[in-house]
Amino acid sequence: MGDKAADNYSDVTDFILVGFRVRPEFHILLFLLFLLVYGMVLLGNISMMVIIVTDSQLNTPMYFFLGNLSFIDLSYSTVIAPKAMMNFLSEKKTVSFVGCVAQFFFFAFFIVTEGFVLAAMAYDRFIAICNPLLYSVHMSRRLCTQLVAGSYFCGWVSSLVQVSVTFSVSFCASRVIDHFYCDSYQIEKISCSNLFVNKMVSLSLAAFIILPTIVVIVVSYMYIVSTVLKIPSMEGRKKAFSTCTSHLGVVSVLYGTVSFVYLTPPSNPELRKVASVFYVLVTPMLNPLIYSLRNKDVKQALKKIRWGKKTLF
């Protein structure tokens, strides 16, 4: 029995990504839609990284984290979008076994890393508002680098574990993944193996990696709200809380869309696909807009760049 399972596993050389179950004439429309949104993801996040790197006034912990957030958003969209767009225009719609493993690994890696970076940003806002006099002492360049490096390390460990468990199973005759990318739930659906270990590993990762990031964010904002409410003037409270609104918006969008995906009934796979588009493409597109529209420093940096271009010409 074990040999048979091993044979099934070794025979898998590629998978078929079904994508969206729509009429063939709508595939070109989906391609154009993905191309438009992905183009905005590239433009927004690359612009944000360039602004942060080139403007010396943005050389602060908050923008150091934001630069990494833009890089992560850009990266996990790039892991998914180009392949999905290629499949919209292709009749085969296949992905190699190695390609599927690589896509799964890097997507999981960047998504988990983003959760930790958002937690680090929440801690940064907590120190800035609750202990502003010691902000520069607490949020040193060394600590910020350690927090970001730790985020990438946790993302790498989590992704490595998920890939090892997900692709160690044996597969049935079907190679069809009912999604537009290599999604863990859909991969498990075509497995012939007992998935008890997979589910235990998923729960363990959620308990020891995902849950702590949410706890840090929630506790940080509990202290932030408590501190802001103690400020006597309404203007002071608005000013203090305005430094957190962009981060809170990004956290709400990301965790809201991810929660919606995993709370959507498995009996409705098309709705899950649509919801997946939001955190694969829409969230990375919105994040730079949220930070640029709600942030005076970023607006001023953009004005400097525009003014510099005018003086050159």
TrEMBL record:
<feature type="domain" description="G-protein coupled receptors family 1 profile">
    <location>
        <begin position="44"/>
        <end position="291"/>
    </location>
</feature>
<feature type="transmembrane region" description="Helical">
    <location>
        <begin position="63"/>
        <end position="81"/>
    </location>
</feature>
<keyword id="KW-1003">Cell membrane</keyword>
<dbReference type="InterPro" id="IPR000725">
    <property type="entry name" value="Olfact_rcpt"/>
</dbReference>
<keyword id="KW-0807">Transducer</keyword>
<keyword id="KW-0472">Membrane</keyword>
<comment type="similarity">
    <text>Belongs to the G-protein coupled receptor 1 family.</text>
</comment>
<feature type="transmembrane region" description="Helical">
    <location>
        <begin position="274"/>
        <end position="293"/>
    </location>
</feature>
<dbReference type="GO" id="GO:0005886">
    <property type="term" value="C:plasma membrane"/>
</dbReference>
<protein>
    <recommendedName>
        <fullName>Olfactory receptor</fullName>
    </recommendedName>
</protein>
<dbReference type="GO" id="GO:0004930">
    <property type="term" value="F:G protein-coupled receptor activity"/>
</dbReference>
<dbReference type="InterPro" id="IPR017452">
    <property type="entry name" value="GPCR_Rhodpsn_7TM"/>
</dbReference>
<feature type="transmembrane region" description="Helical">
    <location>
        <begin position="205"/>
        <end position="229"/>
    </location>
</feature>
<keyword id="KW-0552">Olfaction</keyword>
<keyword id="KW-1133">Transmembrane helix</keyword>
<feature type="transmembrane region" description="Helical">
    <location>
        <begin position="101"/>
        <end position="123"/>
    </location>
</feature>
<keyword id="KW-0675">Receptor</keyword>
<dbReference type="GO" id="GO:0004984">
    <property type="term" value="F:olfactory receptor activity"/>
</dbReference>
<feature type="transmembrane region" description="Helical">
    <location>
        <begin position="241"/>
        <end position="262"/>
    </location>
</feature>
<dbReference type="InterPro" id="IPR000276">
    <property type="entry name" value="GPCR_Rhodpsn"/>
</dbReference>
<keyword id="KW-0812">Transmembrane</keyword>
<dbReference type="Pfam" id="PF13853">
    <property type="entry name" value="7tm_4"/>
</dbReference>
<keyword id="KW-0716">Sensory transduction</keyword>
<keyword id="KW-0297">G-protein coupled receptor</keyword>
<feature type="transmembrane region" description="Helical">
    <location>
        <begin position="28"/>
        <end position="51"/>
    </location>
</feature>
